[in-house]
User: Fold this.
Amino acid sequence: MGGASGDRYGLMGLLNVIRMTDQDLNTLALGTDLTTLGLNLNSSECLYATFASPWADAPAQRDPEFSLPQCYYMQPPALKTGHFSKFRLETLFYIFYNMPRDTLQAYAATELYNRDWRYHKDLKLWFTKASRQGAAESQKGQYIYFDINEWRKKIFRPENAERVEGGGEAVPSIPAADGATDAPLPLS
Assistant:
């Protein structure tokens, strides 16, 4: 190491700090008296509430510098069960599948039931008769289900049904709209 640059960071450079010849170097090495910045160190209140920064000319304000618009303070209107009859079918399915264990899920399920949709517990899908959906007479006895992967209604085809342990085809059943307990879905 040669010359002045090597002495700046060694013992010779420490002499400049001890002699206090450079004000910036003294502030960096020794710090600043906080009372010169307007802080009362004998105060019983918290200091951080009034201390903005060492470079600020005035103490910090206690109130924030922003204000919230009044619309943030307004409460949204309560959702009533009567509103569910006005929702589209896709909205009801969205509520049912995306709000599990919520009262809104139960309200959506009730409204779907009122619209002649039935939930199949094993397949975890909603079904309705095709004739109720305005389908042609050739589709009478067929069922329509709501496919949550494609988010649309589809005709139920039994060949897509799950297989049971015995190797046979599963015959899913759903509750009938007329109050009967179960009505089997057609296999053909």
